[in-house]
Amino acid sequence: MTLGSIHLWAIAGSATQIAGAAACLFVAVWLWRLPARRAKQRVPVTAALLATALWCLVSASWGSGAPLVNIAETMRNLAWLHVIYRQFQYDGRAERLTPVKPLVFALALVEGMQPLLVVLTAGLSGGQSLTMLAEQVSALLRMLFAVGTLMLLHNVYSVAARSQATAMRWAIAALALLLAFDLNYYTAGYLGDGFSPQLASLRGLIVVFVAAAILMTASARSADLRLRPSRAVAFQTLSLAVIGLYFGAMVVGARSLSLLGGDLGRLAQVGFVVVAAVFALVALPSDKLRGWLRVNVVKHLFKHRYDYRAEWLRFTQTIGRADRGDASFGERVVQAMADITDSPSGLLLLPSDDGALELGARFNWPTLDVPPRALPARIVSLFERHEFILDMDEARSGTDYHGELPAMPDWLIGEQRAWAIVPLLHFDQLTGVVILARPKHVRRLDWEDFDLLRIAGRQLASYMAEQASQRALLEANQFDDFNRRIAFVMHDIKNLASQMSLLAGNAEKHADNPAFHADMLVTLRNSSDKLETLLARLGRYGKSSQSQAQDVDLSELARKVAAHYVGTHPVQLSRDEQCIVAGDPEALEQALIHIVGNSVDASLVNMPVILDVSSDALEGRIEVSDSGCGMSAEFIREGLFKPFVSTKEGGFGIGAYEARELILAMGGRLDVDAREGLGSRFVIRLPIAAAAQLRTNHVSDESARDDAHVQHPNKVA
Fold it and tell me: pTM for the full model?
């Protein structure tokens, strides 16, 4: 080290010592002005601060190696030793802890030997060798004092009451830092060729930290002052530490290989650096490594796994970003839940008309094949009663808490990426479930995961219920407007039908040309019948058609509908088993025409629409399949069966809605399965006529028995 650099470090050391002296004097005056009830141990702490300020001023004036500086440092150390011992007296523990007094006495004796060593060195003329020996003995004594005082500090903090330890933790941490720095400083001087001017220049800065810690400890709010690093800072700090350790190991390894010497050593050194650099470029950006690091940071540095403030802000931002991107509300619901557990993807299942759960939305999970009835209705009641989060790994291992295992479908048990099922409950009613995929860093779900996911599920359920209420209100308003308009249409059609009926009646009485008027009568009568049929159909929406059920042959109906499209679009029957169901022939034909028409509109000119008629012992089915543009699960859920929502230019948007309502009115069901770009499949299910008749007779018999019991409650059989 050059003479100029030593001079610069000496100037820096003097500046930090002056700053340390000023800080100690300021805190000493501030402590002395405090009320006596708030200034515990005011006299010894003030004396220690004044002794430390004196040492700083002497060090700034004469340098770190002067004899007077050594004596001033002894005064400083003894003053802080007295403060620590008074802490035991203040707690009333000096009599119980018998090793304390001998340890304090020994430390005071070791430190008291420093002035004697200074006097002996000044009185003897032993030259440079004696001076170096005295410096080594002094450094050794200071090392012993630092180690012993650190042990004493640990004893003070470990046996203190909880509230007392919390209040004085800053002062103890600062004194520990001062003693640890002195231990390092004197150890380096004892083992090396002399004391480091760089370390000496930092001693005043350590004193500033001690004074600030004493000020914080004496503050009325010291118990509330805690070091709470954010998770981002902790994660980044640990990441930098890992990277630093890695590159440090690289340097040590390269230096070690250089000891081989010659060309072989240089080759091994270069090869090691290249391999280590390539490994760093591959491993450090890894998502799996970052996930492992994040989990271990949270596990070992924080009391809780989650930063709830950050999670809540991210949660609300994800749900409320309706104006960003193309993500639908259902996708945002899944993403908000998946972000909590770092899940890469997920599904949203929503209740269908028959109580089962069907696919509502996907988030980054396009390849999973989800059946139309994804979860049975039984699982819905279990979620509503118990409000539990289903750990799929436990379900696969056979663990069954609430009887949910028999209701789990095979497709979900077999999908190893499925990790957890979170119910969305609003006022104890299930509005949907979210299936989360397994995160990249595999871990087990714990109580904190369950609590946070359960609360987030309730919040999402309230958002979904609010959106459903708004949609229902909008739909009701649209229906109200539609009803007002259709009332005028029905009135006009009714008048027209009455006029045509009157015309037909008059023509029968005043016919001059029988042949002509006969044709006119047929035409008018047919028109009148059609208008009256239209009126009847418009007037029966929402009413059950079970009482007017007739036997309908589905195969004959399918052939009749296919004949409508001869010459316009290919509609083919792949299977036409004879199947007699109970329903309304006209309503069923109208519903099938709506569905086939939609498939024709969605298909290219040469792509046929396939009709398939089949049956089993309970129900008959007509499947309408096409290879057209298909539909997304979101559109099926939110738009397909919503009135006044149409993808066709100029369309009313009531065709699919009317078809489903007509089929439901006949006791049937309409299922839809579609994929975007692949096509759609509509399945009409209706009860077999014989089964429907048996069910009707059974209900009638039970009703008659109930009536007889009411009329003759005391009759003995």
Answer: 0.49
